[in-house]
Protein: TetR family transcriptional regulator
Organism: Actinophytocola oryzae
Amino acid sequence: MPTKTTSDAVKRRRRGTELEHALLTAAWDELAEAGFARLTMESVADRARTGVAVLYRRWPNKDELVFAAIRHYGDTHPIVIPDTGSLREDMIELLANINAGRIELATLVGATFAGLHDSAGLTPEDVRNIVRGDGPRRSDVVFRRAHDRGEIDLTRIPQDVLELPFQLVRHDVLMTLRPVTAERIRSIVDDVFWPLVTGPYARP
């Protein structure tokens, strides 16, 4: 009885969600390895072992494919939202989770931005909004719980104050290309964020 070899065996076709996952994973790996400038639709197709037409049926150009790959990485590597019952502890844990789970994403997006700016004229805020999408931010859940517990009054605290801890962590990561230390995270919460939300913007 003849045996099938790898060359003459019929390959199972990937379809739907499985195919899209494979394509976006290949795009992310290519972006991480080759960089935005050297990434092409053809190189991603080769890595995914498919035809380039398969990519173009889903994403009209390289920019859209890269955005989709970045969003897909974020969706498949979710950040755990803590619920300790304390805003201070939630913030320390959330920043630590983001720091541990988003260092690769942050550094790669930072390195990719120059190419996206040259290609599509996008600003850093444009890129962040496209990558983040329209869904609620993880911090919104933490702040709403703290408000409901009576720890803070969201009607009194400016959005800039709420975003400050995350901006500082993002800045440190992009400047050093390394994870932020636990000591730095505690300092951001205890020395910068906490005095603001419990001081001038505290409940009357």
Q: What stands out?
A: Residues 3 and 174 are 54 Å apart (CA to CA).
